[in-house]
Amino acid sequence: MNAIHFAYNTALIPFDDIYKHATYLMKNKKEMHNALSEKYDTEYASFYLPFDLPMHHDIQQVINRIKIHKPDVYIIIGIGGSNLGTYAIHQALFGTLYNEDQLCRVYYIDTLDAQMVSTVSFQIKKELAVGNTIFLSCISKSGTTLETIINFSVLSTTLKTYYPDTWQHYCIIITDYQSPLWQFAQDNSIETITIPMLVGGRFSAFSSVGLFSLGLLGIDIHQLCAGARDAITNCLEPDNTSYSISAISASIIYQHYLQDIHIHDTFLFAPNLAGFGAWYRQLCAESLGKKNNHGKPVGITPTISIGSTDLHSIGQLYVAGPLNRLTTFIYVPSSSDIYTKPDTLFEYIFNKNDIKISYTKTMQSIMQATQETYNHHNHSFMTLTLSNISAYTIGMLMQYKMIEILYLGYLLEVNPFDQPDVEEYKTKTRALLDI
Questions:
Q1: How big is the CA angle at 204 (ends 170 and 253), to the nearest 5 degrees?
Q2: Rounded to an integer, what distance in angstroms lies between the CA atom of residue 289 and that of residue 408?
Q3: Whether the Cβ atoms of residue 182 and residue 176 lie closer than 8 Å to each other
């Protein structure tokens, strides 16, 4: 089986319409491929990240220096594109209980919540009091993200209490070159890694934004980037005349949009991919939700569902509610399994003797039954099946999705790289705070 298998015959769209849009995207494919040779000098700068081996080497050298400190607790301070990609990959590979049985515990600080930050600050003090090592990363592309700056200010102050002369050695800053945060790092002798200027936050998972933290946590960043490289090659190789997963998926989403179906639900039958769903939600919403070239508001509303949990919460709406959404199911066969034992509650409740029930088979059956139910009620869907969850397959999946969103930007006639209206709330917040 290939790393990712894509099935779309259940999308309820004539193949002629799908291939018409996919053919239209071929001109963009050529433009994207040509941009690779320009490295970081075009708006497609993120495409070069998985190919930038010298950058990977430099990041690995920083990781090696930090590992000398043997951090017991690692705190990632960032928001949106500065942490969602990292969290998606980390959770996918280590599971939802990623802090169990790990030498280094990880906390993501991605909002302004006084209770949460107070709890983390108290935890830092407890760890430092018994001689454990804390390490902070502060990630902000612009170097001015209000929530990130406040959180880093508070938590680094806690560090200074215990390391008044050397606190800088337990921090790293990841930001744009010459941003205000970069300048602060230079003035305070804090280790700094920059982000290529034209790489936007939501496209930055394979830059220092993601690779530093992931590498520090023991994830194979080279395999991660290998998966992303293979996705780019598959999508953009000029001699490849077949349509890629990204082109077909974008074409199906767009055709549904033309038919007034503007909701795209990512239904994850793999709980460890919940973070991936949150990452994709930002990628889709922030890239596409804006006015198009003709001044018309457009966009796809991304939602996330977790199987089988959400079948018991919003499944009724999905099955019997309005036909207003397209679903992409994502499934990963489990690499391990658990079976019921004889003489257990299962046999008592279901009156089944001498039968072993597998977790994996049960989950497969639930997803198959869900899809059969969708078919019966004329709900359209696609299915992505990953051969496994590994650094390679997650890198490939995320890169496919980034290219899909760029293709949708062209079809919807919007610039997928900007987010001009996000600045409005930021400006008004600063005015209210008089800063």
A1: 145
A2: 11
A3: yes
